[in-house]
Write a structure and sequence with these properties.
The protein has 224 residues and is mainly alpha-helical. Helices cover 69% and strands 0% of the residues. It contains eleven helices and no strands.
């Protein structure tokens, strides 16, 4: 009986993988808003009712794909973080790996950092996977003795928001430093999104030099 259950589990895992692969293919053609369980089932030669046993709704399938994408880009960032290197080099490597993953998986990147999907509300399950790249950068900062350059004091509202965020993260950074981290994190994904959406055409295309230069500037900004 245990062997039978194991075989059944393997079969279920394999079909789940095939469903996700077909869904990702549809993402490339129609985007998240165009994803259809019926179309996925049809391409796999399944009846819709059978697919519903794996993903009860389109939103359940979208959530699985979103978590997979966040985990994949997060894993790429974490794998690039070689603790044998100095913190600044680790920062540069994480930024480069994040961009490389996005360029290699543009449709999955668009699913997590593109336009919101009408009618879809991401559940709490996506929060931790979504934070993996940011947390990889936070770990670099925490391992370093950073000395950020002078900057104007934070407005009261922003300081309160940063303090709340620090409480949720449970780390020992300052409100000023976590705000700089937020600015740099926004810059990272803003640059990637601009590049993938062709916003740099006619200015800094290809964006390799601009990306590398800005990565260093943001390292300076956080004090590395």
């Amino acid at each position: 009986m245990p062997a039978t259950r194991t075989a059944r589990d393997r079969a279920r895992a394999e079909l789940t993988r095939e469903i996700k692969e077909e869904a990702r293919r549809q993402l490339a053609e129609a985007g998240g808003a165009g994803l259809s369980l019926r179309a996925v089932a049809r391409e796999l030669g399944m009846v819709s009712s059978a697919l519903y046993r794996y993903f009860p709704s389109r939103d359940h399938l979208l959530t699985a794909l979103i978590i997979d994408a966040y985990d994949a880009i997060g894993a790429a960032a974490e794998a690039a973080d070689d603790h044998r290197f100095a913190p600044r080099q680790r920062w540069l490597d994480i930024w480069a790996a994040t961009r490389a993953w996005a360029r290699a998986h543009p449709h999955e990147y668009a699913l997590i950092y593109g336009s919101p999907i009408p009618g879809y509300q991401a559940p709490q399950d996506t929060v931790m996977p979504a934070a993996r790249v940011a947390m990889a950068l936070v770990h670099v900062i925490r391992s370093a003795h950073v000395t950020p350059p002078p900057a104007p004091p934070l407005p009261a509202e922003l300081r309160a928001q940063a303090t709340t965020l620090l409480g949720a993260l449970g780390n020992d950074l300052t409100p000023d430093l976590i705000t700089r981290m937020l600015i740099s994190w926004t810059q990272l994904f803003g640059m990637i999104s601009f590049e993938l959406n062709g916003q740099y055409v006619g200015s800094v295309d290809p964006a390799d030099s601009f990306f590398a230069y800005t990565t260093g500037q943001m390292a300076d900004f956080v004090g590395l």
